[in-house]
Amino acid sequence: MSFANSQTVADIFIKMPDKMIIQLEKAWRKDIIDLYKSGKTASLENTMQGRSVLKKLTNNYLFLETTERSSLEIKLLPLINDTYIICVISTVYAPVADSKAEFYTIEWKKLPDKELFTPITGAWFWKENVDTLSVKYIEAQSLILFDLIKYSLNENDNTMTAEYTFPESLSDEERKKLLPFLKTENKVYEWKLSRFE
Q1: What H or E segment, with its residue span, contains residue 57?
Q2: Which residues of the chain have pLDDT under 50?
Q3: What are the phi and psi torsion angles at 9 (to 5°)?
Q4: Phi first, then psi: what are they for 63, rounded to 5°?
Q5: CA atoms within 13 A of residue 169's CA, in its CB half-sphere
Q6: Do residues 128 and 137 lie in contact, with contact meaning Cβ atoms separated by under 8 Å?
Protein backbone atom coordinates (compact mmCIF):
# COMPACT_ATOMS: atom_id res chain seq x y z
CA MET A 1 0.00 0.00 0.00
CA SER A 2 1.16 3.53 -0.70
CA PHE A 3 1.21 6.47 1.61
CA ALA A 4 -1.88 8.64 1.26
CA ASN A 5 0.14 11.73 2.21
CA SER A 6 -2.31 14.62 2.32
CA GLN A 7 -4.66 13.20 -0.29
CA THR A 8 -8.33 13.65 0.43
CA VAL A 9 -11.23 11.67 -1.01
CA ALA A 10 -11.79 14.60 -3.40
CA ASP A 11 -8.30 14.10 -4.85
CA ILE A 12 -8.93 10.36 -5.10
CA PHE A 13 -12.29 10.93 -6.82
CA ILE A 14 -10.81 13.23 -9.44
CA LYS A 15 -8.12 10.65 -10.23
CA MET A 16 -10.68 7.83 -10.47
CA PRO A 17 -10.32 5.94 -13.80
CA ASP A 18 -12.86 7.15 -16.36
CA LYS A 19 -14.03 3.58 -17.04
CA MET A 20 -15.22 3.36 -13.43
CA ILE A 21 -17.49 6.38 -13.70
CA ILE A 22 -18.53 6.83 -17.30
CA GLN A 23 -21.12 9.46 -16.34
CA LEU A 24 -18.49 12.07 -15.39
CA GLU A 25 -15.13 12.54 -17.09
CA LYS A 26 -12.19 13.84 -15.06
CA ALA A 27 -12.72 17.56 -15.79
CA TRP A 28 -16.38 17.27 -14.79
CA ARG A 29 -15.45 15.51 -11.55
CA LYS A 30 -13.17 18.43 -10.71
CA ASP A 31 -15.95 20.88 -11.57
CA ILE A 32 -18.53 19.14 -9.35
CA ILE A 33 -16.04 19.12 -6.44
CA ASP A 34 -15.41 22.86 -6.94
CA LEU A 35 -19.15 23.56 -6.99
CA TYR A 36 -19.64 21.67 -3.72
CA LYS A 37 -16.72 23.42 -2.01
CA SER A 38 -18.02 26.82 -3.12
CA GLY A 39 -21.36 26.13 -1.43
CA LYS A 40 -23.30 25.96 -4.70
CA THR A 41 -25.57 23.14 -5.84
CA ALA A 42 -23.10 20.49 -6.98
CA SER A 43 -25.09 19.21 -9.95
CA LEU A 44 -23.92 18.63 -13.53
CA GLU A 45 -25.43 17.13 -16.65
CA ASN A 46 -23.72 13.81 -17.27
CA THR A 47 -22.95 11.66 -20.32
CA MET A 48 -26.17 9.68 -19.78
CA GLN A 49 -28.31 12.80 -20.50
CA GLY A 50 -29.20 12.94 -16.83
CA ARG A 51 -27.74 14.75 -13.86
CA SER A 52 -25.07 13.79 -11.35
CA VAL A 53 -25.34 15.39 -7.91
CA LEU A 54 -22.62 15.47 -5.26
CA LYS A 55 -24.56 15.15 -1.98
CA LYS A 56 -21.80 14.83 0.62
CA LEU A 57 -18.06 15.43 0.76
CA THR A 58 -15.64 15.29 3.69
CA ASN A 59 -11.89 14.64 3.80
CA ASN A 60 -12.45 10.88 3.69
CA TYR A 61 -16.02 10.34 2.45
CA LEU A 62 -18.00 11.12 -0.71
CA PHE A 63 -21.58 10.41 -1.75
CA LEU A 64 -22.59 11.02 -5.36
CA GLU A 65 -25.89 10.43 -7.10
CA THR A 66 -24.37 9.34 -10.40
CA THR A 67 -27.77 9.18 -12.11
CA GLU A 68 -31.40 9.26 -11.02
CA ARG A 69 -31.16 5.47 -10.51
CA SER A 70 -27.62 4.95 -9.23
CA SER A 71 -25.23 6.22 -6.58
CA LEU A 72 -21.57 6.00 -5.63
CA GLU A 73 -19.97 6.12 -2.19
CA ILE A 74 -16.22 6.39 -1.64
CA LYS A 75 -14.45 6.13 1.69
CA LEU A 76 -10.78 6.15 2.65
CA LEU A 77 -10.17 3.37 5.19
CA PRO A 78 -7.06 3.47 7.40
CA LEU A 79 -4.43 0.77 7.54
CA ILE A 80 -1.27 0.90 9.65
CA ASN A 81 1.51 3.47 9.19
CA ASP A 82 -0.85 6.18 7.89
CA THR A 83 -1.71 4.23 4.76
CA TYR A 84 -5.19 3.92 3.30
CA ILE A 85 -7.28 1.92 0.91
CA ILE A 86 -10.36 2.99 -0.99
CA CYS A 87 -13.77 1.41 -0.47
CA VAL A 88 -16.26 2.00 -3.26
CA ILE A 89 -19.96 1.19 -2.95
CA SER A 90 -21.92 1.26 -6.22
CA THR A 91 -25.69 1.06 -5.88
CA VAL A 92 -28.30 0.66 -8.61
CA TYR A 93 -32.01 1.30 -8.02
CA ALA A 94 -33.92 -0.87 -10.50
CA PRO A 95 -36.13 0.14 -8.76
CA VAL A 96 -35.04 -1.68 -5.58
CA ALA A 97 -31.55 -0.88 -4.32
CA ASP A 98 -28.78 -3.43 -4.92
CA SER A 99 -25.11 -2.70 -4.18
CA LYS A 100 -21.59 -3.88 -4.89
CA ALA A 101 -18.60 -3.22 -2.61
CA GLU A 102 -15.09 -3.02 -4.07
CA PHE A 103 -11.67 -2.06 -2.75
CA TYR A 104 -8.67 -0.31 -4.32
CA THR A 105 -5.26 1.12 -3.49
CA ILE A 106 -5.05 4.91 -3.59
CA GLU A 107 -3.57 4.48 -7.07
CA TRP A 108 -6.84 2.76 -8.07
CA LYS A 109 -5.39 -0.73 -8.34
CA LYS A 110 -8.04 -3.36 -7.63
CA LEU A 111 -7.73 -5.33 -4.39
CA PRO A 112 -9.21 -8.79 -3.74
CA ASP A 113 -12.62 -8.17 -2.16
CA LYS A 114 -12.75 -11.50 -0.32
CA GLU A 115 -9.67 -10.57 1.72
CA LEU A 116 -11.30 -7.34 2.88
CA PHE A 117 -14.84 -8.42 3.70
CA THR A 118 -17.24 -11.34 3.42
CA PRO A 119 -20.32 -10.40 1.38
CA ILE A 120 -23.55 -11.11 3.17
CA THR A 121 -26.37 -13.23 1.74
CA GLY A 122 -30.09 -12.99 2.30
CA ALA A 123 -29.91 -16.01 4.61
CA TRP A 124 -28.32 -13.84 7.34
CA PHE A 125 -31.51 -11.78 7.64
CA TRP A 126 -33.78 -14.72 8.45
CA LYS A 127 -34.71 -15.18 12.10
CA GLU A 128 -33.33 -18.15 13.95
CA ASN A 129 -35.32 -20.52 16.13
CA VAL A 130 -38.43 -20.51 13.97
CA ASP A 131 -40.46 -23.49 12.84
CA THR A 132 -38.90 -24.13 9.44
CA LEU A 133 -41.47 -26.87 8.74
CA SER A 134 -44.50 -24.62 9.13
CA VAL A 135 -46.62 -23.87 6.08
CA LYS A 136 -46.19 -20.12 6.59
CA TYR A 137 -42.39 -20.42 6.71
CA ILE A 138 -42.26 -22.57 3.58
CA GLU A 139 -44.57 -20.15 1.82
CA ALA A 140 -42.37 -17.21 2.84
CA GLN A 141 -39.25 -19.02 1.61
CA SER A 142 -40.88 -19.61 -1.76
CA LEU A 143 -41.13 -15.86 -2.30
CA ILE A 144 -37.34 -15.47 -2.40
CA LEU A 145 -36.08 -15.39 -5.98
CA PHE A 146 -32.66 -13.76 -5.50
CA ASP A 147 -30.69 -11.56 -3.10
CA LEU A 148 -30.97 -7.80 -3.19
CA ILE A 149 -28.73 -6.10 -0.64
CA LYS A 150 -27.85 -2.45 -0.22
CA TYR A 151 -24.48 -1.55 1.30
CA SER A 152 -23.86 1.92 2.71
CA LEU A 153 -20.83 3.53 4.32
CA ASN A 154 -20.99 5.72 7.42
CA GLU A 155 -19.45 9.14 6.87
CA ASN A 156 -18.70 9.56 10.59
CA ASP A 157 -17.01 6.27 11.41
CA ASN A 158 -15.51 3.23 9.72
CA THR A 159 -18.61 1.07 9.55
CA MET A 160 -20.58 -0.33 6.64
CA THR A 161 -24.24 -1.35 6.83
CA ALA A 162 -25.89 -4.10 4.79
CA GLU A 163 -29.66 -3.81 4.34
CA TYR A 164 -31.83 -6.57 2.87
CA THR A 165 -33.87 -4.81 0.19
CA PHE A 166 -35.46 -7.79 -1.57
CA PRO A 167 -38.75 -7.45 0.40
CA GLU A 168 -39.23 -4.03 -1.24
CA SER A 169 -39.61 -5.80 -4.58
CA LEU A 170 -42.67 -7.73 -3.37
CA SER A 171 -46.31 -6.76 -3.29
CA ASP A 172 -47.79 -5.61 0.03
CA GLU A 173 -49.51 -8.95 0.46
CA GLU A 174 -46.33 -10.94 -0.21
CA ARG A 175 -44.28 -8.68 2.08
CA LYS A 176 -46.70 -9.30 4.95
CA LYS A 177 -46.07 -13.03 4.59
CA LEU A 178 -42.27 -12.62 4.53
CA LEU A 179 -41.50 -9.95 7.13
CA PRO A 180 -42.48 -11.98 10.26
CA PHE A 181 -39.57 -14.33 9.48
CA LEU A 182 -36.95 -11.62 8.95
CA LYS A 183 -34.76 -9.84 11.50
CA THR A 184 -35.56 -6.19 12.01
CA GLU A 185 -31.90 -5.14 12.30
CA ASN A 186 -29.37 -4.62 9.54
CA LYS A 187 -25.92 -6.18 9.40
CA VAL A 188 -23.23 -3.70 10.49
CA TYR A 189 -19.61 -4.30 9.54
CA GLU A 190 -16.79 -2.62 11.47
CA TRP A 191 -13.42 -1.86 9.89
CA LYS A 192 -10.73 -3.57 11.97
CA LEU A 193 -7.16 -2.85 10.87
CA SER A 194 -7.39 -4.39 7.42
CA ARG A 195 -10.89 -5.75 6.79
CA PHE A 196 -14.58 -5.33 7.58
CA GLU A 197 -15.74 -7.76 10.28
Answers
A1: strand 51-57
A2: 1-4
A3: -65, -25
A4: -130, 120
A5: 17
A6: no
